[in-house]
Amino acid sequence: MNLKARRKSGSINHNLDSIEVVLYTDNQDMDSVVHTIELVSGVNVTHGGGGQAGEYLHYKANERDADADGIIDYSNVMMELVQEAQGTSIIKVKCQAIIKADADAFKAVMDAWVERREVALGLGENFTEETPTPPATLITELTTGEITLEWSEDTFV
Questions:
Q1: How far is CA 49 from CA 30, 69, 132, 156, in A?
Q2: Positive or negative torsion for Cα 40, 34, 111, 124
Q3: Domains of the chain: which residue ranges?
Q4: Superfamily of domain 2-99+137-151
Q5: Are 23 and 85 in contact (CB under 8 A)?
Q6: 88-110 as b/e: b if 16+ CB within 10 A
Q7: Are 125 and 118 in contact (CB under 8 A)?
Q8: 31 with 140: CB under 8 angstroms?
Q9: Model's pTM, two decimal places?
């Protein structure tokens, strides 16, 4: 998988920028993808209507973006960014992606655990098996290169 981003719209004379984010998934269906920005340097920047740098937001909605099978195409996302003051900001876009096949496999493990627990408790037995922990590889974290945003005032000449 790979994540890339580019500035699609914005102006040096305004604090708003739109960033197009493209996720290359190697034709794997995604269960979930959330995005954030990392402020590398400069003026603070928010995303998605007020999300702070480091705050992950889900930019897609099931009711709007899912196909008939419930699969959401996460290959392209538009992020609205706002610089909080005039100046220059350098950011990176980050995402946490979960491949649907991996999520389904972990769900099957959890469902089996719940079933064993319910049977044991239904029989009045003590159930001491610990809850399964998601594998460390369930979430893939990706980061783009740096994007420079600038907001300043033009001078009268």
A1: 24, 29, 36, 32
A2: positive
A3: 2-99+137-151
A4: Uncharacterised protein PF12988, DUF3872 (2.60.40.2410)
A5: no
A6: ebbbbbbbebbbeebbeebeeee
A7: no
A8: no
A9: 0.87
Amino acid residing at 58: H
Task: Output the tens digit of pLDDT for each of the chain's 157 residues.
Answer: 999 999 999 888 889 999 999 999 989 999 999 999 999 999 999 999 999 999 999 999 888 888 988 889 999 999 999 999 999 999 999 999 999 999 999 999 999 999 999 999 999 899 999 999 999 999 999 999 999 999 998 888 8
* Closest to 149 (Cα-Cα) out of 6, 53, 21, 49: 6
CB 40 within 8 A of CB 147: no
* Amino acid (one-letter) located at 1: M
Q: Residues 134, 100, 51, CA angle at the centre, nearest 5°?
A: 80
Residue 118: φ, ψ to 5°? -65, -40
Task: Give the helix ranges, DSSP H, for 76-99.
Answer: none
